[in-house]
């Protein structure tokens, strides 16, 4: 067993997790109580990508940075799938053309003004006495 650096020897708190994507397969050894965010950080260094663009999925669960392998009862040699977020055309146009950032777009993706934003528009009510 000494020849295998990924062997779990006498310590069940550490497991090997395989991260697979269209960029290949990479194995990481980690503590079951370490955050998925730490794993994402290491994976991002390996593929030279920002962590904001990386998403992890385990079985049917989308993993959050604060999740841990222990939370999902992950076992040694389990596989996590990575995929990469891309901005939609609408998001890109909103940032480039109108100056609205992603936060504004998430709050109001339609671009339609809300009642609060219409407070500066004169009333067209016909009930003026």
Describe this structure in words.
There is one protein chain. With 129 residues, the chain is an alpha+beta fold. It has three helices and five strands. It has two domains: 14-84, Roll (Ubiquitin-like (UB roll)), CATH 3.10.20; 89-115, no CATH class. It is elongated and about 55 Å long.
The best one-word shape is elongated
What's the architecture of the largest domain, going by CATH?
Roll
Summarize the helix and strand pattern as letters: EEHEEEHH
Largest sheet: 5 strands, mixed
CATH topology of the largest domain: Ubiquitin-like (UB roll)
Instruction: Write down the domain tally.
Output: 2
Task: List key phrases describing it.
5 strands; 3 helices; alpha+beta; Ubiquitin-like (UB roll); 129 residues
Entry summary:
By secondary structure, the chain is of the alpha+beta class. It has helices at residues 36-47, 89-97, 102-107; strands spanning 14-21, 24-31, 54-58, 61-63, 78-84. The termini are far apart.
